[in-house]
Amino acid sequence: MLSTTSAGDGEGEKPSTASSSSTDGAEQVENEKKKERRQFGKKDAADDEGGEDGNAGGKKKKKRVFKMKRTSSSPIGKIIRYSIFLGVAGGLGYCIYKIRQPEFTMPLLLENLDQNGVCYIANAFYYYLQFTGAALEWREAMANSNGVAHLINYINGNNTPEAQRVGMSLLSLLAEYEKTRPYLRNTTVFKTAAHYLNSDDVEVKGASLNVLIYMFQDKPSATLVVDSGVLKLMCNIAAKAFKEGPERFAGELALQAISKIPNNYPGGARALMKKGLDEQQLNCIFAAMHSDLIQLERQGDFDKALKVASECIAMNPQAPEFYQISARIQSSQGNLEGAIWNMKKAVKFGHKEPQHKTFLVQLLLESGRPKYLQDARDLLNKLVNDQTALGKLSSGQQMMDDDAAVGGIAVHRDEKMENLSKEIRVSQMYMQMVKADLMLRDYRSASGHVHEWLKRSPNSAPALYSKAKVLSHRQRYPEALTAVNESLGINPQRPESLYLRAFLLYKLGKADESLDVCHKVVRLLRRDVTRGERVPNLHLLMGKIYEGKEQFSKAEHSYEMLVKADPSRPMPHFRRGRALLKAGQEGKANSEFGEVLRLWSDVCIERKSCKNYFYRNQAAANAMKFIGQRCNGVECRIPQKAVVVETKTEGGTAGSQQPPSPPRQMISGELDIKDMCGMYARLKSAD
After folding, report:
1. CA-CA to 596 of 20 to 30 Å: which in 4, 368, 490, 491?
2. What are the helix (H) ranges across 334-369?
3. How do strand 404-406 and strand 409-411 relate by DSSP bridges?
4. Closest to 597 (Cα-Cα) out of 630, 565, 564, 559
5. What whole-number distance in Å separates Cα of residue 589 and Cα of residue 676?
6. Is the pTM of this model over 0.70?
7. Quick one: which of 244, 218, 215, 247 has its CA closest to 231?
């Protein structure tokens, strides 16, 4: 039993020993594996419920979590890594730098346009150039890299819409820039752009039109356009500007481009007519110039407009519309002589409608010359007695005998409105005739015209006003006052009639009543400022009345309103200065007198016509005499005369420096009487 037990125990110990050794071996193997895994950056993590024994029942297997482990490296490894990084970054930066260089990128892009995908890169590049600030450098690089030839070959060698769109868009960028535009001066470029104007693609058509429009901007291009035959193609497009449709805008752009040809083509319009262009092309150029002329006039560029008008007249010397436009522009510039000459030509060559003649009448009356005033009267007499002309003027167009039909609806004429409009036109013409008569001091003719007018319109307020005005010029003030009162009985709110009544009351010695009427006119004009031009002498009359009442401060204020209305008139300055002098403000009065002398000097000294000016202008002569009396016994501070400096010219003759002109700024503040008298002495010694 003991041996068995001992044996059992002994044998039992051996397996235990073997098991222990096997367990130690397994742990050792596992530790080696862990160590090996740690060397490769691996680490085991037991599950929350797991144990050490992976084979134990009810226990989960271990999960492997991989995590990078920082390992120390030698300095040589760091240097190698940094070198590789710097090399890659430097290479990438160099590539970006080279790509940003137009001289490198543009030839590369243009030479590979036929490659797959390059078309889309070029399209993106077009949008980049259109919106970036560096587009000019890239356009110059494109042009210098023979880009025009590459793009033309690319457009004509590919039938794809994408290629045509990209190529024409890039060409349009070159055409827009003045420095790259000369590279496009080639017949092939023009014909290519003209060919693709018929494209169905809107972008291709727009880019083609853009190329042609910009290529008309200089003289070499205009010459090439005419000589290459592209002008005829452009005229076909321009014809669409006069038709309704989606292509009307393109036609208007073409007209705008063609209008530049006469200015840029050597010899202008006359040379184009001698070039042998057919009638269609000449009419196209003519229509384009007319459109450009209207646009320039609307923009206020009168000098260019007159130049275009002269070119149009050179092409067609008997076209009345260009004479009329020239007259309109010159009247805006104040050149009445030129305006009258051109408007007479317009009437002679076909503009014989009443509205054209009335415009000529306005110019003739505005000139004030006796010859022109007589011409105005003759024209007005014919218009007043021409019932057909009056009908056209009243309706704004030729009267229709039958009822008009607009949109299938019968529109009946309103005879009352037509008669009223005709009466207004007649009144305007009679007023202009009476004005011409009074300017000519032909009071008998003026009375005759007023009599005819009242016979035609007995209850016309303007006619009664004109009658009062004629009587006033003839110094028949009581009769004139009766006539103007009748006019105010018909229209009591008419500023001209109220002012004339105030003037007549003043002449009849009723200053207080006259002043009351003047204040009424002032209140009326506050509600309607635009009618103030009809009574320009209202404040002059009020100033005279206040001076008569010795209310010099109020008189000075009235004259100041006259000065503000038109600072270039000398007499309001003189009257204000005289009122200031009577009010005791001598320094300010001298300033006003100095301004009067300055304005007179501007008028007559440069023209060397001072003696003639004061001889023909009695009011100015009296004012000059008044200022001279103030300078009696005063030591004048005469402006220093210019030193004569001899200058040698190419011909060997000597020149001299002219005396300086008086200051152009308006004199403000107070002026010393010595300086004022110095200006007086300078003006007095002129001529």
Report:
1. 368
2. 336-348, 354-367
3. antiparallel
4. 630
5. 10
6. no
7. 215
